[in-house]
Every structure is written in C-alpha cells, then in structure tokens.
Specification:
The structure is a single chain. The protein is of the alpha/beta class. It has helices at 16-25, 43-52, 71-79, 107-126, 177-185, 204-213, 235-246, 263-275, 314-328, 345-349, and strands spanning 5-10, 31-33, 36-41, 58-67, 95-100, 141-146, 149-155, 195-197, 256-260, 282-286, 300-303, 335-340, 355-361, 364-371. The chain has a seven-stranded mixed sheet with strand order 2-3-1-4-7-6-5. A seven-stranded mixed sheet has the order 10-9-8-11-12-14-13, covered by helices on one side. Helix 2 (43-52) packs across helix 7 (235-246), helix 3 packs parallel to helix 4 and helix 5 crosses helix 6.
Length: 377
C-alpha cells in the first residue's frame, strides 16, 4: 500500500481559498485555514501539486503536530516522530521557527530544542554516537507554535513556487508570479476572450494568463527539493511531468496583449515571454494607458499600475487612475480589474467598483477593484 502523507500548501493572506479551489480542480479533498490549505497525498501527489499549483507558496509535509506548553513536552513529542523516514544520518536539516500566543515564545530556544530532539532520534535510529555530519541532501524543517499547538513540517518545494523559472529579467517592484496568477484567476476571463494588461511591467500578469490559457503547469520547467531526497521515488520526476505536459493545450489561439509606457519594460516582458515558451501567444507594445483603445468586445483587463507609495508620487498615480477611468468607461462590455494600495482609488477613477477584494502584496495591503462588464452577445 502506497504511503499517504499529511500535506499543506502554504499561501499568502487572502489567497487561501484560491489554493483550495485549485486543489479541488486537481481532485484533492482539502481544508482551508489561515495561510495554508491541508490535504493528504502520496509521493506522486507531492510532486503533482508542486508542479500544478499556481497560487500557493510551498508544499510541506506535516511530520507531526501536538500541543506543548513546556520544553520537555516539545522535546519528547518531536523525538517521538519518525524522522528516519525523512532524513538520512547525514542529511542537512536547518530548523526554522515561529511562535505566537504560546507559552514557548522564545523562537531560538524552540528551534534549538526541536533540532536536538531530531538529532537524538537520528542517532538512535542510525546507531551513531558522534555528531551528525549534515553534508547529505538538504531538508528545510520548520516548527510552528500557535496557541500552544505545534506543527512540525518538512518543505518539499525548495525555492518558493512563485519562482517559475521563466523570468530572466525584471523591473522595479515586480509582482510575484503566483500573485499575478491569482489576479488572473480572480477574474471572469476565459481563454477564448481578449486579455489586456495595460501596465505590464516585466510581463508577469500576461505570461501567467497565457500559462492558464494553455493549461501549462507553472512548475513544469523547474526542480523541487523533494526530488533530491533518497526516500523519494525518482521515477516520478519524469512520469508526473510527462502527464502534466500531456495536458497542455498548444492548439488554442490566445488573444493576450501587454502594454507599458516604458520601452525597456516592453523589451524585458518580451524576453520573459520567450523564455516561458509563450513568445507567440502575447503581443507586447509600448503604449501609455491613456492612449489604449480597442474595437474588441467582452475582454478582460487586469492592471497593476504604480501605487504612488513614495512621497510625491501619489498625485501622478491618481492622474493615471483618472485617465484609466476615462478610457475604460467607453468599453462597457469589458471587465476591468485594477490592483492598488490607494484605498481612495474609486474617487480618482470616477466610478464605484462592482466589487473590491482585500489582498496583500507582500506585507502591503492592496485592494483589487473589479468593474464587471456587460457582455455583448
């Protein structure tokens, strides 16, 4: 019988339900919590979710969870976990730590005691009395304590899932790829409709839309830490990727455009799209947002314009928002989605949003202002 693991997909605040929907589409029962979504799966599922999830940050194995209010509790419970199933006698395993609203509040102590308990377990399992060499495969562990409830995890991902591997260049303040994918998935876009990003920057939103439009798994061209661990079935690396590759739709025609006022950003976006293998699917052009117009109908526009966060830049940002409103109101069949940290955006834009959704771009509170179009038959 194939072993089943308790897993979690971690996510930025506000994106957990999207990760849950993605897991549902992939066929997994799941439970949405703050900053994470739990599910169970085999080794194949660990790799499959790493390759397919567009909006998650990482896939972690929950090695164990328990309540602890003393360091003795923590030590004994961690030591009781089957670490030899995940770590070799020579594995390199740093322990990260977090604690909030708990008796064990000193994170350095929590990390040190967790590490000591794992070392003790491995020394017993492998009959070693000397120090563990830690020069083998890498395994990032984390001990999280929240209201005295402890969850100990092993990261299977490595570099965060937003690192798709296609971005060879970026401008200032680029959106993370998984956040850009979330912005697309929060719209009513379907691949048979036009898609426009009028402030495209390094092209991330348009590229993520093309990956979604072609049903290309976002993690297809990168590796994951779990593939280097010797308990992992290496034959899965090719078979899971082959299965994902077979689901891509390379025949569909996409209508995706990205515009930016800065020609250097247009060049960077074009290069990134080529690196993603999507050079023919997206048209990038130099164009100011106020100069864009179209005869197409029923399109979707997603914009991440400058927020005007720096001193003296808010007036310029609000002038751009006003220009956007003037242009976009003439396109009633288009749905417009605009992300900004300026919570008074609607005043500058000149119209109240159909809906607004609170998100976090890193630590920054941002709102996603949505203007739903009236579809033309």
């Amino acid at each position: 019988m194939e072993k089943t693991y308790h897993l979690m997909a971690t996510a930025a605040a506000g994106l957990e339900s999207l990760v849950g929907k993605e897991l549902e589409r992939l066929g997994y029962d799941h439970q949405v919590e703050n900053y994470r979504v739990r599910f169970d799966g085999t080794q194949r599922d660990i790799l499959n979710t790493n390759i397919w999830l567009r909006t998650a940050d990482r896939i972690k194995i929950i090695v164990g969870e328990f309540d602890a209010t003393t360091f003795d509790d923590l030590f004994e419970n961690v030591k009781a976990l089957p670490w030899e199933d995940y770590l070799n006698y020579d594995s390199e395993f740093p322990v990260a730590g977090r604690s909030k609203k708990s008796e064990l509040f000193s994170v350095p102590d929590v990390q040190a005691i967790t590490k000591k308990a794992i070392v003790n377990r491995l020394q017993d399992a492998y009959h070693i009395r000397t120090r563990l060499p830690e020069n083998g495969y890498f395994a990032q562990l984390e001990v999280m304590i929240d209201k005295d409830h402890v969850i100990v995890t092993l990261d299977t991902t490595g570099e965060s899932l937003f690192k798709r591997g296609y971005r060879v260049n970026k401008g200032g303040a680029p959106l993370k790829e998984n956040f850009a994918a979330a912005l697309v998935l929060l719209t009513n876009w379907h691949p048979d409709r036009p898609f426009v990003d009028p402030t495209t920057g390094s092209g991330t939103i348009a590229i993520e839309a093309a990956l979604i439009g072609r049903n290309i798994a976002p993690g297809l061209i990168r590796d994951f830490d779990v593939e280097q661990m010797d308990w992992f079935d290496k034959s899965l690396s090719d078979s899971v990727r082959d299965a994902a590759e077979a689901q891509a739709d390379y025949d569909r025609t996409l209508d995706i455009e990205g515009f930016d006022i800065d020609e250097n950003m247009v060049a960077i976006a074009t290069e990134n799209a080529k690196h993603a293998g999507l050079g023919h699917d997206i048209t990038f052009k130099q164009l100011a947002a106020k100069d864009w117009t179209t005869d197409k109908v029923n399109g979707v526009l997603v914009a991440n314009p400058p927020y005007g966060e720096r001193l003296g830049e808010l007036d310029a940002a609000r002038e751009l928002y006003q220009q956007m409103g003037d242009v976009y109101r003439k396109l009633p069949s288009w749905s417009k989605y605009i992300l900004t940290s300026d919570l008074e955006f609607e005043q500058s834009y000149g119209e109240k949003a159909t809906k607004r959704r609170k998100l976090y771009n890193g630590a920054l509170r941002v709102d996603y202002f949505q203007y739903w179009g009236k579809r033309v038959k």
